[in-house]
């Protein structure tokens, strides 16, 4: 969570906590000029990328849980679409260029105000060059995936589901949240 500001960025009055007129949530707000300090969730966009039955995973170089393997994903920047953010993160973390196929999973983690949006994508180019947030990247056969070293349980669930679906040739769209730890089938 970001640190709460103490003063209004517009008129420097000290901010007060409470429910602003006509609002539904308690927020920091300014009695001087009416400024309201909104805190909204962050969006993390990424991709599940399969090539010839192998799945792209990146090994994290940075906390939390460095050394674990995960789907390439990261925070959206202002001015991006979710698709652009997802493909940029894939590029930065694996050096892989890809094209989006469809949305695949939306997963909310309300305790830390984050939303994960994962797309299906296909590889267009593999450069072998990647940024400092990644120790290594690999396309894994399903039985070679380091299942006990996956970054987050929901990532493991998404991968397991995807592998089954690829065998069946039919793909769903999923949503879930961290309260249950489960990805739910909504098709
Ligand atoms: Zn103000």
From TrEMBL:
Pfam families (alphabetical): NUDIX, Zn_ribbon_Nudix
Nudix hydrolase domain boundaries: 40-162
Listed cofactors: Mg(2+)
Domain of life the protein comes from: Bacteria
MF terms (GO), sorted A to Z: hydrolase activity
Keywords on record: Hydrolase, Magnesium
InterPro entries: Nudix_hydrolase (IPR020476), NUDIX_hydrolase-like_dom_sf (IPR015797), NUDIX_hydrolase_CS (IPR020084), NUDIX_hydrolase_dom (IPR000086), Nudix_N (IPR029401)
Record SUPFAM superfamilies: Nudix
Claim: Cell inner membrane is one of the keywords in the record: no
The keyword Hydrolase belongs to this UniProt entry's keyword annotation: yes
The family this protein is said to belong to: Belongs to the Nudix hydrolase family.
Listed name of the protein: ADP-ribose pyrophosphatase YjhB, NUDIX family
Species in which this protein is naturally found: Pseudomonas soli
Lineage of origin: Bacteria, Pseudomonadati, Pseudomonadota, Gammaproteobacteria, Pseudomonadales
């Amino acid at each position: 969570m970001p640190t709460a500001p103490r003063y209004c960025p517009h008129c420097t009055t000290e901010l007060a906590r409470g429910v602003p007129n006509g609002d539904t949530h308690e927020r920091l707000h300014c009695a001087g000029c009416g400024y309201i300090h909104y805190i909204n969730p962050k969006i993390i966009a990424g991709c599940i990328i399969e090539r010839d039955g192998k799945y792209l995973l990146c090994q994290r170089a940075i906390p939390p849980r460095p050394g674990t393997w995960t789907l390439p994903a990261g925070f959206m920047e202002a001015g991006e679409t979710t698709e652009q953010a997802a493909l940029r993160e894939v590029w930065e973390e694996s050096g892989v260029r890809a094209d989006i196929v469809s949305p695949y999973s939306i997963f909310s983690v309300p305790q830390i105000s984050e939303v994960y949006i994962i797309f299906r994508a296909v590889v267009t180019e593999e450069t072998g060059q990647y940024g400092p947030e990644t120790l290594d990247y690999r396309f894994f056969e399903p039985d070679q995936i380091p299942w006990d070293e996956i970054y987050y349980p929901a990532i493991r669930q998404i991968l397991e589901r995807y592998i089954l679906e690829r065998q069946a040739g039919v793909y769903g769209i999923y949503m879930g949240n961290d309260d249950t730890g489960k990805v739910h089938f909504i098709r």
